[in-house]
Description:
about 525 residues, alpha+beta
Amino acid sequence: xxxIVLMPKLGLTMKKGRIxxxxxxEGEWVNQGEPLLEVMTEKVNVKVESPFxxxxxxxxxxxxxxxxxxxxxxxxxEEGDDEAVLQATVARAQADLAEALQASAGREEExxxxxxxxxxxxxxxxxxxxxxxxxxxxARQEGVDVSLLNGSGPGGRVVEEDVLAYLEQLxxxxxxxxxxxxGMRAVxxxxxxxxxxxxxxxxxxxxVDVTALRDVRNQLNAAGxxxxxFSYTDLLVKFTAEALTEYPMVNSxxxxxxxxxxGSINIGVxxxxxxxxxxxxxxxxxxxxxxxxxxxxxDLANRARNNELNPEDVENGTFTITNLGMFGAEGFTPIINxxxxxxxxxGIIRTKPAISGGKLEKRDFMMLSLSFDHRIIDGSxxxxxxxxxxxxxxxxxxxxxxxxxxxxxxxxAAGGARTPRQLRAAYQNGIDRLMETAPDLVMGFxxxxxxxFFDDSxxxxxxKELIAVALAVYIKCxxxxxxxxxxxMQLGATPEQVLEAAGVSVFxxxxxxxxxxSTLVQESIEAFSKH
Length: 531
């Protein structure tokens, strides 16, 4: 008896699929359960097994065809089938297929009605234009407004080539490519739109100091001796899974009326493909070792790029991590991968100057963006979860039983080419020479700080120098900074006092100059503390 093969439904949300290719030819024998064709759907490429045993009698749809589920795609014959019955079965299958395609074509026709509008360049200056007779004739024939043309002839005269170039420009505008939203792109479009409509999206952000995470990653990779190369994504999956064990509501899934709290933590990692995005997930990530997570992340990413994912790889996710840092994005507002209720966006890691332990250092920072469904997760809960994750990432050592390594390169070198000692020597030499060549200039300069250093002040010399440090930092004079820090420390100022004085002015400063000044303060303290 002839059998009709239908486009299978390979997932709960699948509505249509694209035939990637047939694995059997017409006339070939196929056993039930043997791979018959490949179908791209729900973001994965699936090998579809034959539902029947028999001969592939007729293929109704070629490779590359996108079809709704449950429509006929082939007819299979059994041994001894009558040719007339087979032909009748093919005719019936083709009729059913045509009817389904006609319904789909109706929807496509609605899209084609949305015509693109031609671009009409603006006219800046109007008036008479000089134009050659041939150009004028062609413009009249083609209905071109001469005032829109740029003349390339002598004195700006419009020539025939200008009219032809303008017509070619219009032709290119009209021939723009139209890319249908189908296959994976259609699934993405549908899901993103549905997520926006169904969930009450709110995004909060936190800047995380990942300097220690970089240290931990380096130590782990060194310890692994090439067995596995841990990435920041591996570490993020591990720490996020751990944080989710403390905040199960952030790991929840939901429908319109119900909240589901899964017993597992399945973290999806978004993988960018040439024609879209796919989110395979790592099942029970909280129970896996970091090495297991790393291997799974790499395996899923490779299979995603080769269209080798299975439907179960992308199903039952409970939380998603999407990383746009590799593309230079600082922070963004990721859309929740429904029916999940939260998603974490990861930005680029940037090195910035920052005060750490009283020292100005080069630190690595990453922006984390947490989007959550406010219907399910309160803002305070989301903030607590993000704060907890930030805490883990900024101090990962106890979780991995490691100790911080001494990282000398964290200390920022002075922005100028000279050291504080060289700056102070240059300043003193300059003042000495000025006293010989232009004493009035030195006296005038000294008058600027006369109110600070006058003898009858109730302030001590030390406090006067600290005030001078604050003033020097405020005006961002590197000579003055090193000179007054040197004098203050000669009078017994501690590094903490100098930093406090500098901090008063730093509070009012900002920008790149502030980073340079702050660095110079730190270097001056270190240089003059050695006396």
